[in-house]
Amino acid sequence: MVKQSNASTAMPKNKWPLILLVLFSLSTVMVVFLRATSDYCNTSTGSSTEQLGSEDNQGKAPIHSTIQVGNSAPSPLEFMKSKLVLMVSHELSLSGGPLLLMELAFLLRGVGSDVVWITYQKPSESDEVMYSLENKMLDRGVQVFPAYGEKAIDTALKADLVILNTAVSGKWLDAALKEKVPDVLPKVLWWIHEMRGHYFKVEYVKHLPFVAGAMIDSHVTAELWKNRTRERLGIKMPETYVVHLGNSKELMEVAEDSVSKRVLREHVRESLGVRNDDILFALINSVSRGKGQDLFLRSFYESLKLIQEKKLQVPALHAVVVGSDFSAHTTLEIELRKYVADKKIQDRVHFINKTLTVAPYLAAIDVLVQNSQGRGECFGRITIEAMAFRLPVLGTAAGGTMEIVVNGTTGLLHPEGKKGVMPLANNIVKLATHVERRLTMGKRGYDRVKEMFMEHHMAHRIALVLKEVLRKSKRHS
Ligand SMILES: *[C@@H]1O[C@H](CO)[C@@H](O)[C@H](O)[C@H]1NC(C)=O
Ligand SMILES: *[C@@H]1O[C@H](CO)[C@@H](O)[C@H](O)[C@H]1NC(C)=O
Ligand SMILES: *[C@@H]1O[C@H](CO)[C@@H](O)[C@H](O)[C@H]1NC(C)=O
Ligand SMILES: *[C@@H]1O[C@H](CO)[C@@H](O)[C@H](O)[C@H]1NC(C)=O
């Protein structure tokens, strides 16, 4: 007994640089996929100039597939064997939309589909990320074709299935296919990950009513699309399928390895100067009003006041904001620093630069705060990532979060906006003071992920959709 426990505590100390190396390279992929996704569904209805999902393009990490090919359980996508699938992406970058589509491309390659990839908005100068992603796909047997010209048209006409990714990809249809558009529409599956107002535009989605189906990441986003297309554009959605996302195998591997988790936890806490029994509440998203870091810090400050007023005995509380970019000099970044300085809580608030590597932070913290404002997240993949790490979630009662977090069971919900500041503060105090409750909620969140939000769940749901779409397009041809 004694020997064993010695061994297990001594081992990581000696080997942790190695373990960390392994973990970081291992976690790169899932982090790349998932990190980008949670930033993807930008819900603000503000200006429409921002390029879709471009926030996290700076990462240059090598990409590996998250999909294990040819492992034991038969894939629910088996029926796609030798089917020709054309995938059309508006861009090829490390942002959520393209990476999700790539994930699906590799799943389909794994069951023997022929997959052709088209990126229709290419940067003018050569782009390192795009180059490495293209090579990655070629390595995995995905063919990469130019967006325009005979080859593209031919493939579209021959394909069993065409998957358009994101709303803006609608522009490719006319530009590339011209008079052939009507021949292709009946076999198009349109995968939509957007919620922002400026995507509800006829120039993007005028062909939407005539495609075989739309696939959307959450019920609330699907409802929004139904409503907006009808009320604002006067068009009807095609058959719409809601497909929740799932956690990759790589993420689950780290989340379920207690030694790795402990090593990462110690490492990150040490670098933050935080004690082992301090309680860390983290918000992990690019800093922006839409993600609600400002309101989170206000709630955090209020929770410290409550604890002081009520003279509660709790370990030190810390707020961690992962996803900061102070060099961008945005007013919000400056405002957050100023707020922390004014309230004199510098020793309790930690800003962490934007990173593609979130696993160490998920291992190090105790509670995830999902404070997305307005309509909330379209889905919010960070939420299921955190639950995989057995973290309870304090989330806004909005968007996809409501479909993931069970209020009172796997986390606690608060209203979005200023009216949510005190409820979130109270929830922070609740989880800080009730250790048992916090741990139980984390465990239940993990159970829920295992039950609903794993990669195989997603593959199964996608398989049902693809079957439907194939059936319909056959009827047409
Ligand atoms: C969302 O989009 C708005 C307007 O395009 C932008 O100002 C904001 O920073 C974006 N938020 C995120 C989280 O990317
Ligand atoms: C559709 O959205 C409008 C506001 O944009 C709202 O007033 C209406 O209740 C919504 N309809 C449905 C059926 O949700
Ligand atoms: C975070 O980014 C800032 C610039 O925005 C830089 O000065 C700082 O060194 C970075 N911190 C780390 C730990 O990389
Ligand atoms: C969440 O549950 C709490 C009680 O546990 C309740 O006060 C609150 O209204 C609920 N919020 C939502 C959005 O259901």
From TrEMBL:
InterPro entries: Glyco_trans_1, Glyco_trans_4_5. GO terms for molecular function: glycosyltransferase activity. Pfam families: Glyco_trans_4_5, Glycos_transf_1. It comes from the Eukaryota. Gene3D superfamilies: Glycogen Phosphorylase B. Residues 266-447 form the Glycosyl transferase family domain. Signal peptide: none annotated. This is Glycosyl transferase family 1 domain-containing protein. It comes from Acacia crassicarpa (northern wattle).
